[in-house]
């Protein structure tokens, strides 16, 4: 009897503790004030990129691009791809692509062939997309060290193996500049002056590391001749650089100084064209005690540090800035079997990370007064690869992964961003300096236009594990109508999640037609329940939700 009584007391204490914990979890409050506008809801999310340009016109590549273009309308999506000038037969492979745009005849005369690169750009233009046209890499006939040229890298092999003859300077910079001139001239003839004026051209990729096998000054020379070729072909074209890596602030600074103050290698005048500034920003996940632990702060610090370099030049205040690659880590083609730290990519962690990180990109843009216009998610699709192999991609074998639905959410956010306050959202400086290491980050970003308002809410943590779903009370102020229609979308283990459905049907590597149809449906953005009509009191509405760890909710109000 005595022991039964003690056990009862322990149970009661445990119950009281759980109730107390439940009350703690239920204390999350997010206030949305539609009357306090911050800035335009720039579509910085509508930028994507990938290493393998030949996937563009393949079956699943075209399908994914069609989806992205359709849900983004009327916002034009910009697409950046490597290897647009690389020599080869157009066969796609991991971290490789080619167009054979430039070869030379027996006498060393240039031979231009735009067939493959046209087939890439045609896919974009047909869908209303815009090239962020990367001028690179070095054609074999121009490289100072052409052999070996075609790499055969596979995941798990040393990354250094990819840097072959395409990464070297040209043997003739005038021929290099003429190649760019001929390419832009061809694009103007094919697509029209007005269309090409709406693109951006950017020279090379990550010249501060082995993507460029020349010196810093040789890169500046490469840039000058390329930019001169662009402007000779179309003076109103927009060109820039330099897409340095996340920690390469000194390189970016030297590049900006060169463009503003140095003698131009191509023209002999002071300065070089600079219509857009680009750099990269990456996180740094690791496996700790058997679990993936992200480092969102590393990516945001890259952005913060590069913004500060740009801000040091007052004459660049209004120049558009693009984060040319903006991702949780560095290698899209490194699957989770060879790189276990990338196991976050199939499920909801990639989704919540994307939501939480993009909100901070807007906040950094605001706090540092930088004209950020785009953040390229270096993630596309990998044709004819195993299902859910853990590549950093938006779809697998034509089936959308959960992360793509975050971009569907962003596409519905119109008008102007408005004030958001949350008692569980990490402060900007804290997350930049320390990432997310204690309680989860429960925050939101919100926008409104004349007939709608939208709120994206996430429950994110750097450690990839499941946790207690938390009650969140969302208070929306300033609604201008007496009634609104509320649509509540969700990404979690039960909604908008093809990966969880794939596991439930046995993780097939050769799914049949019925299974594929099921997976395709599961990959779309899903409502939590049917749309509801809500009555508004004095412009205010309270919306309680329950959101699991790594989940993302999206509330869309229309009137």
From TrEMBL:
Annotated organism of origin: Xanthocytophaga agilis
Membership in a protein family: Belongs to the glycosyl hydrolase 39 family.
GO BP, sorted A to Z: carbohydrate metabolic process
A GO term, aspect molecular function: hydrolase activity, hydrolyzing O-glycosyl compounds
Protein name: Beta-xylosidase
Stored PANTHER family: ALPHA-L-IDURONIDASE
Key words, A-Z: Glycosidase, Hydrolase, Signal
All copies of domain Glycosyl hydrolases family 39 N-terminal catalytic, residue ranges: 30-522
Signal peptide from the UniProt entry: 1-20
Active site per the UniProt annotation: 206 (proton donor)
